Amino acid sequence: MTDFSVILAGxxxxxxxxxxLYVIAGVIVGQFVGAMPGIGPVxxxxxxxxxxxxxxxxxxxxxxxxxxxxxxVGGAIPAILINTPGTPxxxxxxxxxHPLSKKGKPLKALKMALYSSVTGDTFSDxxxxxxxxxxxxxxxxxxxxxxxxxxxxxxxxxxxxxGASVTRGIIATALGLLAATxxxxxxxxxxxxxxxxxxxxxxxxxAAVAIGTLAFAEIIRRLISMTGEIRPAVNFPKDxxxxxxxxxxxxxWSCKFVLLRGALIGTGIGAVPGMxxxxxxxxxxxxxxxxxxxxxxxxxxxxxxIAATESANSSVAGADMMPLLxxxxxGSASSAMLIGAFLIQGIQPGPLLFESQGQLVYGLFxxxxxxxxxxxIIGLFxxxxxxxxxxxxxxxxxxxxxxxxxxxxxxxxxGIFGVYxxxxxxxIGLVMTALNYPVVVFIIAFFLAPRFELALGQSAAxxxxxxxxxxxxxxxxxxxxxxxxxxxxxxxxxxxxxPKQPKESKSEPEFNENLQPEEA
Amino acid sequence: MKINHLLKKIVLTxxxxxxxxxIASDWTPSGPITLKIGFGPGGATDVIGxxxxxxxxxxxxxxxxxxxxxGGGGVAMLSxxxxxxxxxxxxxxxxxxxxxxxxxTRGDSLPFNLDSFDYIxxxxxxxxxxxxxxxxxxNTFAEFIEQSKANGGYLVGFDGGPQKLIINAINAxxxxxxxxxxxxSGSEQIQSLLGGQIQAGFxxxxxxxxxxxxxxxxxxxxxxxxQPYSPETSSLIEQGFxxxxxxxxxxxxxxxxxxxxxxxxxAALEEALKSEAVIELIExxxxxxxxxxxxxxxxxxxxxxxxxxxxxxxxxK
Lengths: 520, 317
Hints:
The complex is a heterodimer. Chain A is mainly alpha-helical. Chain A has one domain (4-234, 241-507). Chain A contains 22 helices and 2 strands. Chain A has helices at 4-14, 17-35, 41-52, 57-74, 76-82, 93-102, 106-141, 144-161, 166-179, 206-224, 249-254, 256-271, 277-291, 303-327, 333-344, 353-356, 358-389, 394-413, 416-434, 439-462, 474-497, 501-507, and strands at 183-184, 191-192. Chain A has a two-stranded antiparallel ribbon with strand order 1-2. By secondary structure, chain B is an alpha/beta fold. Chain B folds into 2 domains: 32-125 and 247-315, Bordetella uptake gene, domain 1 (D-Maltodextrin-Binding Protein, domain 2, 3-Layer(aba) Sandwich), CATH 3.40.190; 129-221, Periplasmic binding protein-like II (D-Maltodextrin-Binding Protein, domain 2), CATH 3.40.190.10. In chain B, the strands form 3 sheets. In chain B, strands 2-1-3-10-4 form a 5-stranded mixed beta sheet, sandwiched between helices. Chain B has a 3-stranded antiparallel beta sheet with strand order 8-5-9, sandwiched between helices. Chain B has a two-stranded parallel sheet with strand order 6-7. Chains A and B meet through α3, α15 and α20 of A and α2, α3, β7, α7 and α8 of B.
């Protein structure tokens, strides 16, 4: 057990003006790049990492943590305002955030996102600080077989819960897995589906696929639907009543269980390396909607929808640090950047980190909490600016967003090749949406696929090709059973709901679950 | 006659001296140098490349622009570099293993081979070793093989084709029946080891902390020489398995680099590796020190390693 004096010394190290300034700089930059479709916090961190070499460890890591956490808040901003997630994990936030914004309450939606994000983030940071070590031990027992079963369960939940039907969800999952087979296979390093393009050795670049399907497709759709008259991207009255611009404590408190569930899902998912915040956000959203008494309200601007997604995707960030600090395993692209920064500072994550660098680790925890506070305060100011900005003509907003997407992908993938991939996937996104297949299910499957395939190969080796050996892995068996049940049960539920839908759809527009095109 | 001879000597020596000076310092790049890194931004290779680039900028006053060309462990970068002009303004930073593996297994489908490049030097070699849990009932790789045979085949992690090849070749030689389990990194193998999912694995630096903490132990080093951080651990070759993997980080350029340019770049690299920042960074990230084999040494090392890799591919079948 770490000495209490070390903990105190660590926290007081964090609370210096220098560190504070680096954290604030990180948060400002993070929120900004998060809000820019196409330029994400991961890429910004990648650019910043080499520069942190000249800094002391704490300000260096504080800066990167700030960027990462700022990005969590920033990504929701364009998702809510223009239905174009700034980061993939904010895709779920658009489902309820954008409709609320279209109702003329963008500030209300943005504030709910900010509060939920900071709540989820702080929750998982506290879990990290207090029980990182025991949780890491449990995570260690999650071997490849268990991880594989967990992924199957996640796929069955997501494909069952999101989208028009379970069948379409499963097809979208399969397409996502298929797209991810491009590149070297994890077992024998055999190149697959390269067609002579060596740039595809590592598969389709994730940035290009995510930005293409999630952001660029929506931008194209909006540009197409423009009529030529100049109108603001989001319309809201100047003399809005106060309650439409803010979230009262009563409203916030009414979401307490939603927030807690989101934070728990996010923390759990974050503790398992490689599951990712996008999946967490959708799982939280789907389970909130399923357990709600009025599921029909979701997708039309319910603040609970925003609370569910933002608390979940932000709480992944803190939990992500558990495998990182205790095992040196990055759970996401952004924590891979943090590991890089740790290493160049000579800090080796692993078993000795808490003993040999205890003061630094608690300094890092201090910086994380500080970043949450900064995120909140800077977010409150920033949201007003973004809400002002969005009243600019939509032709301007969307063409600017287009430029950012192209520039961002060009930078992230190292050339024009990635931009072509982005365009192809934007097209795929448009076609899938037009045919009513859930694009987000596709993208989550694509994100998780490399891990899924790796775990499949590992499981086959560990079980030596004999499925009967699964009896030695009870946790995996339970997860497999739950997956089968989930698909079966959700299918029945969807079918039962079907007959009602034609009646409802006359009076109310359809759910905007798949980032569907809307009549503006 | 004698004077004539003396004059000749003087002229000869002076011209030699002068040309020597010319080799060391007279070349300046016609524009900024582009350093292409075969890996994505933010990783160890990227940071090492960038710090070397900035050391060269400070030492030589040249502009060095860093570009990331990730893909296939360097294959994407080398494919592009092979087509670049050999005037010293385009150089690449790669790691030997994945590239050699690709040349050995599917060389005919690649747009380059080892002869497509001139070599400037190496930066460092990573301290690859075979590791196991500290409480495992074997202490050397030879003991591990014996017990694997007796217990119907142990599970061994790997995170790159060459590691898998070594295990397969040893399987073929000894009948150890080892099953290989794919991983994405050394850290992941450590996780699987600690969680008890595999019995041995490969570590490329991250394992050193776990040796100190007493969670892991080394069965053998996989490089052809012993490692300074654990001088008592013998190599696979010493234990009777005639294979080794030496993952070098190296600088390369398109074939046809003029001799004076090559010498200037090589000198610049040598100088950069002596800078405080580079030494500290390599110590921090790789737990070892810089090692430059020079242009000829690098080429020889790559050719030797390719021969080893080709042998591995043949033996593992």
